[in-house]
Amino acid sequence: MFVIGSASGHSVSVFGHAAGTASLQASSEGKTGQATVTVTAPAPVGTVTVVPESATLAVGDSVWFRAELRDPAGNLLANRIVSWSVTDSSVIDLHAYGAQALVQPRSSGSAILRATSEGKSGEASIIVR
Question: What is the pLDDT of residue 7?
Fold first, then answer.
């Protein structure tokens, strides 16, 4: 459950690999100390919202979108994997950068931009004039 990353002098680094509780014990010169470390599992993604939710663009424009991830209690989440897709790549080019995506129009039409994380998705509608 835990891995000791390094121990030196009076300190130790501990890394959690799974949810759970562990006790750490250290001894020196006949004295012993103990600490309890608890690692909790990260909250799951409850909702994904693409911001902005819609855009009307012209060929030559470029717009950044972001995926806003929240847990079931509505708390903002970070450091999650987000995948991006678009329904019509002939209308827009999509360049994904983690929780952000750059959209560049290619031709007139409409497309849906979708962000997905942990099985939850959010969408934005895009019109190119």
Answer: 63
Say if residue 65 is in the same domain as residue 13.
no
* Token pair recorded at residue 18: 């799974």
For residues 86, 62, 120 and 72, what is the CA-based torsion angle, rounded to 10 degrees? -170
- Computed over every residue of the chain, the mean pLDDT equals 91
Tell whether pTM > 0.85: no
- CB count, 10 Å around CB of 118? 15
How many angstroms separate the CA atoms of 83 and 62, rounded?
A: 19
**Range of 26's domain?**
2-39
Which distant-in-sequence residues (6+ apart) come within 8 Å of 114 by Cβ?
50, 84, 85, 86, 87, 121, 122, 123
Number of domains in the chain: 2
Q: Is residue 111 classed as helix, strand or coil in its secondary structure?
A: strand
Find where tokens 């806003």 sit. Answer: 68
More confident residue, 21 or 82: 82
Q: Which of 74, 128, 76, 123 has its CA nearest to residue 101?
A: 123
